[in-house]
Amino acid sequence: MCTLERKGNVFILTLTGPGEHRLNPTLIDSIRSALNQIRTAVTTTATSSSPSALITTAHGKFFSNGYDLSWAKSSESRLELIRSKVRSLVADLISLPMPTVAAVSGHASAAGFILARSHDYLLMRRDRGFIYMSELDIELLLPAWLVALFDRKISSPAARRDLLLRADKMTADVAVAKGIIDSAHDSAEETVEAAVRLGEGLVSRKWNGHVYAQIRKDLLSEVLDDIRVNNTGSRARL
């Protein structure tokens, strides 16, 4: 499902296998378990952590093609279980005590793109793949926490419109031009290499990971508040 490798103080989490890496409870739990391993490995006291960075990437044609709809749509309870787990995964990334970089090696659609954009930085290969928010095409509503996340991560209203209200499939170069992702690279290998260089550069700043995470949580407080509301069931939305 996923592997975790450590190169110095850079952790590389890779979604494995040749498939679409669709998000189902098994894969999400595997990713969250890896994040917990990272958190445990770097935390030295209640107030400090070893300077580190996370790179998330994937094998094959897809970074992630979103929800495992063939599994989820068999019952409303299954669909809500996946939604809940994705919310918790996003909250885990927001609270992780280190910079995070997504190295998108192929198609990133719907919840797969949400996973990628939940990282601090998003790098993507330009020779294959696109980003795509399919909710308009498949008639799913957007949750409040996701709208808040994209408000913070994508500054251009026109870019958010094209992504969410046109359901455009965007290549890396188009996404860079619109300010949706950070950079484009010529292959999957070059994308991961660039992500590792970025991660190593961020580690060299020797920031306190807990301070970094708290600032990120403050910046994304509305996202976390909406996730908490959804997870308690006080104001359920798709």
TrEMBL record:
Keyword Lipid metabolism tagged: yes
Class of this enzyme: isomerase
SUPFAM superfamilies with a match to the protein in the record: ClpP/crotonase
Domain of life: Eukaryota
Catalytic activity as recorded in UniProt: a (3Z)-enoyl-CoA = a 4-saturated (2E)-enoyl-CoA; a (3E)-enoyl-CoA = a 4-saturated (2E)-enoyl-CoA
Gene Ontology process terms (BP): fatty acid beta-oxidation
Record key words, sorted: Lipid metabolism
Pfam families: ECH_1
Pathway membership, UniProt: Lipid metabolism; fatty acid beta-oxidation
The EC number(s) this enzyme carries: 5.3.3.8
InterPro entries in alphabetical order: ClpP/crotonase-like_dom_sf, Enoyl-CoA_hydra/iso
Gene Ontology CC annotation, any one: peroxisome
Gene Ontology molecular functions: delta(3)-delta(2)-enoyl-CoA isomerase activity
Protein name, entry field: Delta(3)-Delta(2)-enoyl-CoA isomerase
Lineage, broadest ranks: Eukaryota, Viridiplantae, Streptophyta, Embryophyta, Tracheophyta
